[in-house]
Amino acid sequence: MSERDVGQLHSADDLIAAVEQYGFLPFFRNEIHGFSIEELCPPELWFADDVDGPWEWKGPAARSGKCLYGKLFNKKAGFVSREWIPDFANFRRDGYDFDARWDDGLASYKDKELYEAIGGEGGMLSKRLKEALNYRKGGNTGFETCITRLQMQSYVCIADFVYMQDRYGRPYGWGVAEYATPEELFGYDFITSAYQRDPQESKERILKHLQSRLPNATEMQLEKIIKG
Fold first, then answer.
1. Cβ(50)–Cβ(41) below 8 Å
2. For residues 121 and 184, what is the distance between their CA atoms, to the nearest angstrom?
């Protein structure tokens, strides 16, 4: 699969294959032409009423065990293939487990509350998370800012989407995100397996890989994707 293969995704399996090919794949259009699920998907499937498209595929892809999903690129959604999760986590975390980041004063108390609530449950729906930590009118504020930051730093990801059901048992509406830690989904040893490398070495490995997959992209464009 190359940059020219725009419009080739027709199923969740196709989406996962594209993520595995690129290693990193934003959901939405960005500065790198053709480097998004939005552009790789036929326009008629982007918002289709009678057939599944990317919005429905993202759940199966997230729970497949083959990729990491969340707001990972410029605070917007995207995927990282299983192969590249350890280096991605090592670079984005800058070598810190969350507890070490907190101990060094580099994390907010709200981030810590969210991270510990999600980690303590093993997985938590956004609706329940907001209720548990009083993110409602007159209560805490800044939920989206905090949960997005935790995803960008790779401490939290989206494990699945849960849909409401009508009286006939049919799903409807937008799926409710279920948050989890990458360690919960993939195992602590796997997620931290690149920790022996300097975070900058992980960054260089990612950059070199993306340069091989996206030869027409500039280094500045790739750096923007990598850094988030």
1. no
2. 10
Chain centroid to Cα 51, Å, comes to: 24
Q: Which residues pair with 180 in a beta bridge?
A: 157
- Which residues is 166 bridged to in the sheet? none
Which of helix, strand or coil describes residue 16? helix
Distance CA 44, CA 31 (A): 23
CB 134 within 8 A of CB 141: no
Side-chain-side CA neighbours of 29 within 13 Å: the count stands at 6
Q: Tell me: the pLDDT tens digits for 89-106? A: 999 999 899 999 999 999
Q: How far apart are CA 28 and CA 217, in angstroms?
A: 16
Element (H, E) at 144: helix 143-152
Question: Contact 56/173 with Cβ under 8 angstroms?
Answer: no
Question: Mind listing the pLDDT tens digit for each residue in 35-85?
Answer: 999 999 988 888 777 778 898 899 999 999 999 999 999 999 999 999 999
